[in-house]
Every structure is written in structure tokens, then in C-alpha cells.
Design a protein that fits this description.
The complex is a heterodimer of chains A (391) and B (87). With 391 residues, chain A is an alpha+beta fold. Chain A is 31% helix and 29% strand. Chain A is elongated, with a radius of gyration of 25 Å. The chains are: A alpha+beta (391), B alpha+beta (87). The complex binds FE2/S2 (inorganic) cluster.
């Protein structure tokens, strides 16, 4: 079973500042996951630039396999030091995970990472050491399914100073809040939103410091396979159906002809979701002009092709995460929901040219392929791993 | 048993496939033929044109107008039923 680390973050800029002096960088490859949270000293433009450089340098160096020594010496050599306080201009915390499990944490002057495991606040065995005269804390550990991890910047620890909490929200209280919240079983986006709302409330709407939280949830990888379009060679029909049916995770068919091929090969009848108006009772009917869906046993979603794909592209243009999608049971909303919920998406794109749609071929690519490519691009932007195979 | 397949794809639904189905059903009920005719919906038949795409068993019709359900029934479905009966 492969694990996936869901990640979301949110920054609140200090009241009166346009830019936030914290910065988060996430770098993922199919094999590794890296997140860096950097907090620039002070606030405003200078802090923002320092934090951005630090996070950027650390994330890209770690991604290329650099050690923490190399990262820190590069940072020391590149970034100026505050002459008055003899402090580095930015602090940082980085979490590196290999193959979804093997985690390495390094913290340089940041609040410790919060780990909630099995409903408990878990204290990680950290080792302190000095690199280039700077004290860092490191931990090696294994991630488990169901773990929640949270990184916060100083602004969180101080939230509410002098108000609700005399000394600020404090690490321990934040950890307890996260532990309580985790019982809802929500995802990383909802967790970060909850944290951010609380920090904003504690600051009475006017953050006294840049405040950033990064939330992570470790869960099973969600895989989806989308087959759209008949294979170029009819002889491949059965094999294409077998590929889809044997794939792990969510299975989707987009395309009328494609669905008919699948029905034929599977020996099933394609049942289009439609009941004559008089038999509908009070189930709401589809809005006119929205493409229908159908049913095949063993397939999670069956839709028509081009129009549904086109509508799904527009939905993704307007929604960053699955939470931003409008509620709807129409074909495109359901497809968009699947795509945004999955971590790994495989597109199997048939390249047979439909004689009725020759006009749809634009510069050698079918409309279908153009839409699929656009979907793939959109999904990759969201850090999902996407493959596209022509059949 | 005769199967009438009505396209409920986007183009046909805009052109009134629901209304057409509704009217067709009334014709069927009026004559008490509910157990001899089955109405089902279908994906786009790739015949999107000026009207609704309809299939009666394997016979394909295109450009059917949503207001002509009664006459479509008389013209295309009834004869088929009679033929079925006599065979
Ligand atoms: S929508 Fe009915 S034939 Fe295309």
C-alpha cells in the first residue's frame, strides 16, 4: 500500500503589511515529498524576500539530494546576516519524505513540528547539533497512515498575546487544538483553514506577526484511471477494457462510443441514467443540455465524451481544490470531483478518429486530446501525478 | 416487446427529448401498451442535428421534432406492434 501526503498551507500577513514574511515551498516527485516553511525576520518586503529565497534554495537543494550541511552553508553564504542581532535573516523547517514513509525533519529555530498519531500528540526524538555555528534539530521517523503533521511559524505561537492567552496561543495549546480537530477525520485543507481562522480570531482580525500553518495528512494514495475514446485499432478494444477494469482505484469512462465498447466487451447493457419524466417523482431532473451519465457494473462513472470533458476543464479552471467545486450530480461535476480527489491520475486516450467528428481535429489533435491535455496540465499544477497514454 | 431508445444527450435534451418522451408515454398509456413498449434513454447517438435522435428497436430516426410524438407513434411504432402481433 502506498501512502500519500496531502498538504495545504495558509499565510496571514502581519496587520498593515501587504506581503507575508513567511514562505512555504513544496516540491514533490513520484518518489519524494519535500516541504519547507521559512520565516523571514521582521515583516514586510524584506522578510518576504528573505523567506522566499530561503525556502526556494532549501527546497530545490534538498530535492537534488543535498545534505542539510550543504543547504545551510549555501544559505549562510548567500543571505546577509542581521548586523545588529547577529541573526540569520530567516529561519526554516523542512520535512523530507522518501517513498511516502521515510521521513527526515530538520528545524532551524522554528516551533517544533506537531505530529498527531493515533489521536495523541507524539513527541519526536529530536537530536540537536550545530552546523556552521547554527543550532539545528533533526529527527528521523516513519510516517504511518492516519498521521497528521502541522508546521507553524512564530506568529501562531504568539497569536492572542495579551488577549485571550496572556502569553500567546502557545505550542502546547496549538497541538491540543490540532489533536481535537483531527478527530473529525478531515483533510489537510480543512485543517489549515480551521487553524487559520482560529489564529485570525485570536489576533482579533489584526495579526501581530506573519502567521503561517502547513497541515499534512498521511493517507492511502487515491488512484483514478480515465478511459476516453475508442482505441485506434478495433482489435485493441478488449484489451483497453481489460486495462481499465484491472486498474487500481477509481474507474471512469468518458465517451458514448467508448462506453458502448465497454458494455459490449463486458457483456452488459449500458444503462443511461434517465427515467421518463412521468416516473421521476420528485427526483430532480438534469438541467437541459447537460450531458447524461450511465451505469456499468464495476465502473464508477460513465459519461459522454467531448462536452463533459470540456465542461470539466472549465470547472477545474474555477476550483483549486475539491472544496471549491459547486455541488452537483451532473457528469462534469462528478468527473471534476474524482479528478480533484485523486493523487494519481492515468488517462487512457483512444485515438480512433470518429468520421462524424473529423472537423474536430485541430492541428493534428482531436478535441478529445486537447481537453485531456488541458486537464492533465491543470492537475499537474496541483501537484498530482498524471500519466497520459495514447491507445 | 419494442424498445424505443431516446437520445438524452445534450443536443437532443435541449431540443426537447424529455417532452417527447413524456408525450410518447401518454400515447402508450392511453392505449394500455405499457407492457409491450419499453422507453429507455441513450447517450448521444452522434447524429446531433436539427431534431431529436430516436431509435425504435434497431431503426434509427433523426430530426424528430418534440411536438410530433403522437404522429411518430402512429407512423413508426404502431405498425411495428401490429407486425409483431401478426408474426
Ligand atoms: S445529443 Fe442526441 S444525437 Fe447527439
Amino acid at each position: 500500500m502506498r501512502l500519500f501526503i496531502e498538504v495545504a498551507w495558509d499565510s496571514l500577513a502581519k496587520h498593515g503589511e501587504e506581503l507575508c514574511g513567511d514562505c512555504v515551498r513544496v516540491a514533490t516527485t513520484p518518489q519524494s515529498f519535500i516541504v519547507v516553511l521559512s520565516d523571514g525576520l521582521g515583516s514586510g518586503v524584506k522578510a518576504n524576500i528573505m523567506a522566499t529565497l530561503t525556502a526556494e534554495i532549501a527546497a530545490s537543494m534538498f530535492q537534488r539530494g543535498a545534505s542539510v550541511e550543504e543547504v545551510i552553508s549555501t544559505l549562510v553564504a548567500t543571505l546577509p546576516e542581521c548586523s545588529v542581532r547577529k541573526l540569520a535573516y530567516a529561519t526554516f523547517a523542512a520535512l523530507l519524505v522518501e517513498r511516502g514513509r521515510d521521513a527526515y525533519l530538520v528545524e532551524y529555530d522554528t516551533p517544533p513540528l506537531i505530529l498527531i498519531r493515533g489521536g495523541q500528540i507524539w513527541s519526536l526524538p529530536r537530536v540537536e547539533r550545530e552546523v556552521e555555528g547554527r543550532k539545528i534539530h533533526e529527527a528521523h521517523f516513519w510516517l504511518q497512515e492516519g498521521d497528521y503533521l502541522v508546521m507553524v511559524s512564530d506568529g501562531y505561537v504568539h497569536a492572542g498575546v495579551g488577549g485571550l492567552y496572556r502569553l500567546g496561543w502557545g505550542w502546547q495549546n496549538i497541538a491540543v487544538s490540532v489533536r481535537r480537530w483531527v478527530q473529525t477525520g478531515g483533510d489537510a485543507h480543512s485543517l489549515v483553514r480551521a487553524l487559520s481562522n482560529t489564529a485570525m480570531r485570536l489576533y482579533d482580525g489584526k495579526p501581530g506577526d506573519d502567521s503561517t500553518a502547513v497541515a499534512m495528512r498521511v493517507r492511502r494514495t487515491v488512484v483514478a484511471t480515465i478511459w476516453t475514446g475508442p482505441p485506434a485499432d478495433r482489435e485493441q478494444d478488449a484489451q483497453a477494457v481489460a486495462r481499465l477494469m484491472k486498474s487500481r482505484g477509481i474507474k471512469v469512462i468518458c465517451g458514448g462510443t467508448t462506453a458502448q465498447i465497454a458494455a459490449r466487451v463486458l457483456g452488459q447493457e449500458l444503462k443511461v441514467d434517465w427515467v421518463p419524466p412521468s416516473k421521476r417523482g420528485n427526483t430532480p431532473s438534469r438541467a437541459r443540455g447537460t450531458p447524461p451519465t450511465a451505469r456499468l457494473d464495476g465502473v464508477d462513472l460513465v459519461t459522454e465524451g467531448i462536452l463533459t470533458l470540456g465542461q470539466t476543464v472549465s470547472l477545474l479552471e474555477q476550483a483549486k481544490t475539491v472544496h471549491d467545486l459547486p455541488p452537483g450530480e451532473d457528469a462534469a461535476s462528478r468527473l471534476a470531483r474524482i479528478l480533484l480527489s485523486a493523487d494519481e491520475i492515468h488517462f487512457l486516450v483512444g485515438t480512433a478518429i470518429n468520421p462524424n467528428q473529423v472537423a474536430d481535429v485541430i492541428r493534428g489533435e482531436s478535441m478529445r486530446m486537447l481537453y485531456v491535455k488541458e486537464l492533465a496540465r491543470q492537475l499537474e499544477q496541483r501537484n498530482k501525478s498524471v500519466t497520459l497514454e495514447r491507445i | 416487446m419494442i424498445t424505443v431508445t431516446i437520445c438524452v444527450g445534450s443536443s437532443c435534451s435541449v431540443r426537447g427529448s424529455d417532452e417527447f418522451a413524456d408525450a410518447l408515454e401518454r400515447e402508450i398509456e392511453k392505449r394500455g401498451l405499457g407492457d409491450r413498449i419499453r422507453l429507455v434513454g441513450a447517450f448521444c447517438m452522434e447524429q446531433c442535428s436539427k431534431g431529436i435522435s430516436v431509435k425504435v428497436d434497431d431503426q434509427q430516426y433523426r430530426e424528430v421534432h418534440f411536438l410530433e410524438a403522437a404522429s411518430f407513434f402512429e407512423r413508426e411504432i404502431l405498425p411495428r406492434l401490429n407486425r409483431e402481433e401478426s408474426s
